[in-house]
Amino acid sequence: MKKRITAAELMSKLNADPKFVVQRAKREEEHQKRVAEFRRAEAPLVEELRAAGFAVESVGSLLNTATPYPKALPILLEHLQRPYPGDVREVIARALAVPEAKFGWDVLTRLFRDERDDERAKDGLAVAIAAIADDQTIGEVIALARDPQHGSSRLLLLSALERSRDPRALAALMELETDPDLVKEIRVILRRLKRKR
User: Would you say which domain of life the source belongs to (predicted)?
Assistant: First the structure.
């Protein structure tokens, strides 16, 4: 039987391996470079948020706060329509994933439909749409979820269908259960819904 080693022993062994140390340093350098590029790209939005009274270091700061930020939402929605890199647009969209952002429904769904270049941005938009969807807009969510051109981002729309009390949402989930991109998640959702009944 092989002797088990502790995490500390494993780290000590890895730190003694020059190849591992070089690879780790390279990964850390690449990570720091991506962070710096992200901060540089988001700077105009961060400046505008600060000028509006929000003490943020990054747009991502809004994702980690329990304090509502309704006055920031119009700023976020306006910046989401600018040509930021995909990772910045993703974070902006996720920061709009709050019920108070419902006023931006038309813009968010248009941007989702039009997004072709960046999967991260499309995912962020799907998260925002699912968060603000209600029974008045569920028909549009169903149409987006049915459209295979939206790829795996459709998975992120399913939470709105699960949450909806509109009978069309359940019918859509059952219809989409055969969609190869959605089948696993929909089966989980349908089991959860069955247990709740």
Answer: Bacteria
